[in-house]
Amino acid sequence: MSTATIAVLVALGFGVMLARRRSFAIWLLTAQSLLLGVAALTLVDEGPGLLLAGIILVVRAVALPALLSLTRRRTPEPGPVTPATTVVVRLLVATVVCLIAVASVPPLGLGDVAAEHGAIALLCLGIAIVIMRRPALVQVLGILVAENGVYLLAVSVHGGLPFAIELGVLFDLALIITVAAAFAHRIHGEIGSGDTDLLRGLRD
Q: What are the backbone dihedrals phi and psi of residue 178, each rounded to the nearest 5 degrees, phi first?
């Protein structure tokens, strides 16, 4: 996979971190997932497993964002959710965390240093999104960004991972996202907002 493609994947991950509107963040995640799937399809000459991986990733890039978009429409926010941190702080923290992680993790032996670094950066970005963003739906997007990092690593393995493993991972992820979307809808129904910071005020 080209270094430019990996750079765009990471940039889109940063976009999800910084986006203020949930709809825009979903579009960025969709673009990232589609790019990853198309990139996997361009590597089919390296192994038949990459063809299946690319198809799975493209289907996933359409299905999961569609589910999240449906959840967003069913859980309208009464007003803007004020971020817990500024855009500059989020950008700075995410950048520092990614740089430290990339520098600290030893080579993974794939032979593609750019893919390894990109996968680590996406994984860290996904975790940072879950921690630093308040809307429940955006936190779900953080899980998907981190998972895209795992898939970037998977398609960088020579020949790709076995189909059974890829299908199993996709099924598990779809189940997790479905449950997370259901919880986001329930949270919105109970407190009228997807702002997870409001849950701090709940008492038994």
A: -65, -45
